[in-house]
Every structure is written in C-alpha cells, then in structure tokens.
Structure to design on (700 residues):
C-alpha cells in the first residue's frame, strides 16, 4: 500500500464538527439556547439544566468507571488526559465569577454560542463578552501580580478519591457511587423545589420546547458528553504517534523512491522530492495562484448556474416575478467581476487581448476566453428579451443617455424574435462556462490533484448549486423559490456524486494521484475540506432544504449563504491544495 | 472548555495554535450549525432579545455583554467553562472541577436575588 500514514488529527477535526453539531442540536432542542430557561435554575422554578448536568456527569462517570473495572479503559489515565490539573484558588474564584456572569448574561459560555446560532441577540453579545474577557485575561494572567494568583493552589491532577484518602483502585468506584447517590438526592430535591415554587411560577419561563422532554434529551446529552470525552483523548494520542514517525534524509528518501516506493509517506514527499512533481527542481514556481483564481472560478461558476437557471425559469411560463426578470442580468455582471479578479492575476495585463488573436482548439484557456466573449451578447439579449414592456422602456431610456437607446431596442426586438432558440443557447453557453471553470484546472495535469476528468462536471454542479443559492438570496415568488430549491437539491446531489467519483478516481490511480487524493482524504486539507465543503456546504444545506419543504418552514437566508460559502471553499481548497 | 480556548486563536494571545485549540474551533463550527438547524426546524429561529418582562432591551444587552466578559475572564482562570470543567472534569472526579461547579452555583445563587428584575 502506498497510502500514506493516516494523520488522524485531521480526521479528529472532522469528528469535532460532527460532535459539535450534535452538541449544538441537543442543547438547542433542550431549550438551553434560551436565557430565561437557563436563568430559571437560580430561581428554582425550572431545574432542567441542573438535572441534565447531573445526569450527564453521572452517565459519563458510571460509563467510564464500568469500562475501567472490566478493563476496557483506565479511569486515571483517561482522567489525566482529559481533565485539567487542579488550581484550587483560581478555580473557586473563577467559579464564583462565572456564576455571577451566568446569572447576568443568562448563558454559560457554551450555550451562548447556541443562542447566537438561533438568532438571539443577547447570546451574540454574551459571545462577544466572553471573547473579550478571555483576551483580556490572556493578556493579564502571566504578568507579575496576576501570575501567582493564576497558578495558586496547584495540586496537579488531583481527584476526589485522593482527597478522601481512598485506595487508587477502589477509590473511583466508591466516589462514583457516592456521587450517583448524591445526584439522585439532588434530582429529587430539585423536583420537589420545582413543585413548591410551581404556585408562583414564572409566567415567561417555558416548558422544554422539545415535544418529549426529559429522558430522550438526557440520554442524548449524556451520549454527547461521553463521545466528547472519548474524542478529547483522540487527537492527542494520534499526535504522539505521528511524532514518532522518524524524519528521513534526502538520500534515504531517494533510495526509497526507487527501491521501496510502497513505503513512501506523504510527509516525506512534501518535504523533499515528490513523485507528483511537487519539486522545486521540476516546477520552480509552486504557489503562483493567489486569491484571484478561486474568486474568478467561483464567480464564473455562479454566473454559469445563474444562466442555466434563468433559462430554465423562462422556459416554464410567462409570468415571472420582477426579481427573476432582473436577475438575468446578474450573469454578465458576475462574469465581469470575476474577469476583473482574473485580470489582476495576469502579469501582463495589456497583453490580455492576445488571447483573441489566435484560437487553439486544444487549449481550454483559448476556449474559455471565447466562451466568456459569447456569454455577454447571449445573456444580455436574453435578459432584455425577458423583460416586460415597461421594464424595457426604463432600460432603453437609461441606455439612451449614453446614446445607446436604439441598439438596446434592436437587441430586445432580436431577442424576442428568437426567444425560444436563445433560451437553449443561453443554457448551453452557461453549461459550457461551468464546465470550463473546472477544465481550466484539469489541463494543468502536472498538478496531480487537478489531473481528473471529473473536475469539469464537479465545478459545473457546484456552479449550478451556487447559482441557485445566489437566486435564493433575492425575493422570488413562492413558486419560483420551490423550483430553484429543487434544482439546488439536484445540483447538490450531482456535486456529491461528482466528488465521490473524483476522489475515487484519484485514489485508485497511480501513486501521484493517490498522494493528491490523500491531501483531501487524510492530509493537511482534510479538516477544512470535509467540514467546510462537505458538511457545512453540502450536507447541512441539503438537510435544511429538504426539511424546509417537508416541515413547511419559512425560507431562511442562511441556507443559500452556506451553499455559497461551501462553493467558495471548494474552489479555494482545490486551487490551494493543488499547488501544495 | 469551548470558549476557554478560542481566545488563543486571536493573534494577540501568545499561545501558539495548539491541536486542542483547532479542535475547538471546528467543534464550535459544528455547534453553530447544529444549534441553527435545531432552532430552524423547530420554528424557534428568530432574531430577538430574550429577557424578563421588567427590563429594557438596552439593559438586557448590556448585562449580557458584561456577564459574558466576566465569564470570559473566569473561564480562562479556571481553565474551562461549564461544559469542559464542570461536565467533563466532574465526570472524571477531578477535585478542581467539583470545587468549580459548587462555586458556579454559589456565585449564581448569590447574585440571583439582585438580578431578579432581569428575569422575572
């Protein structure tokens, strides 16, 4: 196997996103994203948080104790890994401070993020405060006069069974049982308190909003905490393993390339020589494309999506919302902005026109230059022809100021005459533009990551999806929004399929391609690729769009924004990782 | 734990971005997504300020900000917040975590009476 050593740390980060998702979801559904419910703990009217906290602690604790008694885990070893050392003085003082902050803001630091995510402005301000407070204390804690306090009462890793002088073996079990008994007592006490205070219950305190309160939420919460504790141990142990891998000298590496290529690791090749030509001696300029190219590819893809979708929308029926009519102009506008970015990237800007002097039909750059030229007349003619009469008058009057009134009207007349044909031409040019944004990369076969025929379809699907997302940002009619959303779901599905084929294709080809696939699968780009592109940019929007129609929810602007961010991240990562 | 380390990613914090920190940044990304999906699908997604009936929006926001500030300082002091220190550490029977947990409730209950106008 030439597959490189697995840097599980990067995978751990993807796991972090998934665990975080579960954590945030459960917290919100339990009502912990709402300050009045959290604050109610301190008035005894609603002790849910208190109960959930103890359930979670007891579940995780008993699970670990049980696992360590049967020999599956070592309680002390896990605890030494995951729990922080005891600094008694700052912990007690900080505890009081945190309690005070809790009742003032109504959140604890973790739940304030959930509140922020669900649109609660008080949560947002709490988050800002938390960040500011941490930065402030980070600035102070090491200064003389603060440092002694910050580190006062250091007991190292100090556990309850040691505090009570219990034997190390049986200690955790005894304390765990005692804590369980105490928790049950507290539980009953809390319920009693709730009942006593129920008479003068808070009118604004709300019941747990999830339909089934109690058990399910508790179980979910406890499970998340348990997985979280396990996850805490994950990145550290694997990090240690990676460090153990010895560095390799140039000569040894060269010898290994010839004698035992199957023992190559991705880390070696990135440092010195590389079978994928990532070598200073072969391709002297490795990182030649900055932010301009991803921006250009992103906007170009989005314009392609807009062209395809406006064609499709216009094919449906005649009465369209004003937004859709005007949005047909977005495609040439987006292409123009993207070309501006591209122009910034060209070293010899004044030579750009030479692209058009010679047409080399084997060169996608040449193709692309001409596709871009065709985009303008086609999309403008269609957009003008798609306007209503009054709108045409407004445009013609505006253009008339520049002496272009008559040509505009002529273009409208031409467009209306050939409307049906123009729709299909626009669709085709849009698809060509979308494919071209991917092909542009894949012609540079020297970059192993881009050496795949799937890049064209992948970027086309992504362009269609981002184009749909762009349209969704505007005020479409209900019916049009459904139509665009359906297309976006289809585009996301196609994009996932193209991604799978792309990665599978690379991973089953030669060693260079495998290394390239490894960049995204188990390499330095894994975490950002999977969390930003796959989870945040594809899976979550698809989930939201599906639930939106299923549960008949009001459309939210967050879904298209996630799609757009994911589409941009895809291009950014592909361009950057390809040059890594 | 969660925000206890976010500050470390700020360029002014001297701590180099450790593995643990990047883990938390990614976890927060997940928390935001999860919280959003949960709120959206249950129809609770709304831009609003949550507060008791007897307090103005400005005062509530000011209290939220200053409460956050206190918690930020506190979470750095205690090397973790309610989730990381009390929940994880508590389950692992760390003395510091339990001392912290009782202090949190102590601090909360001590101030609750003075803050009752904010919530009730």
């Amino acid at each position: 196997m030439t597959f490189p050593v697995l840097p599980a740390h990067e995978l751990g980060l993807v796991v972090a996103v998934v665990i975080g998702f579960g954590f945030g979801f459960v917290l919100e559904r339990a009502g912990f994203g709402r300050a009045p419910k959290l604050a109610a703990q301190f008035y005894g009217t609603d002790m849910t948080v208190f109960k959930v906290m103890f359930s979670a602690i007891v579940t995780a604790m008993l699970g670990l104790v049980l696992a360590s008694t049967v020999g599956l885990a070592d309680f002390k070893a896990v605890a030494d890994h995951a729990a922080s050392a005891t600094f008694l003085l700052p912990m007690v003082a900080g505890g009081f401070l945190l309690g005070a902050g809790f009742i003032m803001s109504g959140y604890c630091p973790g739940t304030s993020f959930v509140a922020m995510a669900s649109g609660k402005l008080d949560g947002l301000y709490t988050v800002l405060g938390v960040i500011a407070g941490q930065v402030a204390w980070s600035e102070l804690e090491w200064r003389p006069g603060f440092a002694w306090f910050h580190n006062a009462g250091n007991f190292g890793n100090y556990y309850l069974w040691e505090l009570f002088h219990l034997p190390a073996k049986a200690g955790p079990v005894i304390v765990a049982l005692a804590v369980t008994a105490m928790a049950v007592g507290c539980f009953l006490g809390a319920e009693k308190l709730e009942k006593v205070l129920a008479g003068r219950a808070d009118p604004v305190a709300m019941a747990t909003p999830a339909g089934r309160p109690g058990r399910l939420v508790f179980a979910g919460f406890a499970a998340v905490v348990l997985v979280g504790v396990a996850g805490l141990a994950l990145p550290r142990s694997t990090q240690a393993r990676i460090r153990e891998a010895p560095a390799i000298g140039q000569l040894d590496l060269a010898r290994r390339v010839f004698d035992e290529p199957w023992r190559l690791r991705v880390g070696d090749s990135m440092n010195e020589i590389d079978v994928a030509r990532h070598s200073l001696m072969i391709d002297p300029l490795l990182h030649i494309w900055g932010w301009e190219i991803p921006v250009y590819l992103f906007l170009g893809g989005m314009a392609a999506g807009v062209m395809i979708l406006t064609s499709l929308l216009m094919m449906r029926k005649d009465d369209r919302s004003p937004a859709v009519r005007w949005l047909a102009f977005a495609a040439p506008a987006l292409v123009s902005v993207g070309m501006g970015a591209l122009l910034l990237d060209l070293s010899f800007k004044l030579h750009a026109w030479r692209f058009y002097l010679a047409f080399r039909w084997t060169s996608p750059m040449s193709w692309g230059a001409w596709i871009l030229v065709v985009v303008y007349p086609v999309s403008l003619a269609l957009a003008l022809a798609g306007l209503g009469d009054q709108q045409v008058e407004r445009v013609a009057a505006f253009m008339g100021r520049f002496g272009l009134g008559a040509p505009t009207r002529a273009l409208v007349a031409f467009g209306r005459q050939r409307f049906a044909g123009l729709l299909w031409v626009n669709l085709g040019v849009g698809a060509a533009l979308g494919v071209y944004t991917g092909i542009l990369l894949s012609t540079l076969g020297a970059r192993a990551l881009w050496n795949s025929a799937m890049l064209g379809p992948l970027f086309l699907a992504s362009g269609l999806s981002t184009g749909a997302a762009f349209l969704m940002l505007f005020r479409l009619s209900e019916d049009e929004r459904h139509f665009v959303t359906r297309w976006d779901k289809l585009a996301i599905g196609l994009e996932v399929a193209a991604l799978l084929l792309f990665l599978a294709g690379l991973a089953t080809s030669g060693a260079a391609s495998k290394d390239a696939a490894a960049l995204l699968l188990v390499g330095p780009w894994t975490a950002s690729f999977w969390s930003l592109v796959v989870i945040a940019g594809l899976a979550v929007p698809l989930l939201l769009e599906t639930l939106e129609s299923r549960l008949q929810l009001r459309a939210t602007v967050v879904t298209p924004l996630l799609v757009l961010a994911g589409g941009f991240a895809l291009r950014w990562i592909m361009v950057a990782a390809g040059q890594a | 734990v969660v925000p206890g380390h976010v500050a470390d990613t700020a360029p002014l914090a001297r701590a180099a971005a450790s593995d643990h920190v990047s883990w938390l940044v990614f976890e927060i990304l997940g928390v935001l997504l999860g919280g959003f999906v949960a709120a959206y699908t249950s129809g609770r997604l709304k831009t609003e300020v949550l507060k008791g009936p007897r307090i103005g929006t400005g005062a509530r926001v000011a209290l939220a900000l200053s409460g956050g500030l206190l918690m930020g300082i506190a979470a750095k002091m205690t090397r973790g917040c309610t989730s990381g220190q009390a929940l994880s550490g508590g389950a692992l029977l760390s003395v510091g975590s339990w001392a912290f947990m009782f202090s949190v409730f102590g601090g909360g209950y001590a101030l609750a009476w003075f803050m009752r106008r904010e919530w009730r």
